């Protein structure tokens, strides 16, 4: 298990690698690992490459009200091609995707959704989310997460679970998590028992001092880990995913618990994705991220290309995701 990182900022305490004195219950770890073993890692980079190529030839989103600026190049945000690729990808696996179209203030969002039904407690939903909009080629942000979501969706079809697994690709995350906010506000998340949301999970480097700290939170100085972020409601989930991923050797995971519902200002950098409103609603949720602009110098730039990603890192993170989904959905 990784080293414990304990950070104190004024009266705020954030625990890296959250662990209870007795550790998490590991009884179902072996069964969860079996699902991860069904992940075909060779499927991942082709998804990233297909999405990147399609984005570069896609029509940008209407960015009225979201003026283009440094690190927010809204003139280059696309989503139409991604909606089609993700929907077709799900169809090719045997799913029947539903695109939830929600319009407000002249701006329409397209959230793509599929489900693998649970058997004994199907009314309890484990949501697995990623955002489908992206700047330029968007290989890491968020092609990496879409690829992991699609491959996990394929792998879970080989197994049965107590809970329903719902895969959702949210729209317009880059404009302030608009798609996921509308999804939650419209009541589509009312049956969500817990969630895992991914935002950039494919960039890693073993160069020293390649990882920046986040708003005073001390992180390991080498950017070769996946950060698993929870809040008080999802602290146990964080602990379980860290223990599962690291004990099985499937990935290099570091955990961080934001205090309360995660809205404390020193933790606000970790609210910048589609898990945010789930936290506010009291739904246990995790954010999986390579920390974005705190590591990846290609963040929101034309250089966010497939060749900048680390395929082995993405593969390990996808296996860790699949194992966690299997654990939380209770593989049978």
Description:
This protein is an alpha/beta fold. The protein has a single domain (5-329), classed as Aminopeptidase (3-Layer(aba) Sandwich), CATH 3.40.630.10. Helices cover 29% and strands 22% of the residues. The chain has 8 helices and 12 strands. Helix 1 (29-36) packs across helix 8 (311-329), helix 2 (44-56) packs across helix 4 and helix 6 crosses helix 8 (311-329). The protein is globular and about 50 Å long.
Considering the chains and any ligands shown, give keywords for the structure.
332 residues, alpha/beta, Aminopeptidase, 8-stranded mixed beta sheet, two-stranded antiparallel sheet, 12 strands, 29% helix, disordered N terminus
Topology, please?
Elements: E1 5-9, E2 12-16, H1 29-36, H2 44-56, E3 77-78, H3 80-92, E4 98-104, E5 107-116, E6 121-131, E7 134-135, H4 139-156, E8 163-170, H5 178-185, E9 192-198, E10 226-230, H6 235-247, E11 253-257, H7 276-280, E12 285-289, H8 311-329
Parallel strand pairs: 6-8, 6-9, 9-12, 10-11
Antiparallel strand pairs: 1-2, 3-7, 4-5, 5-8, 10-12
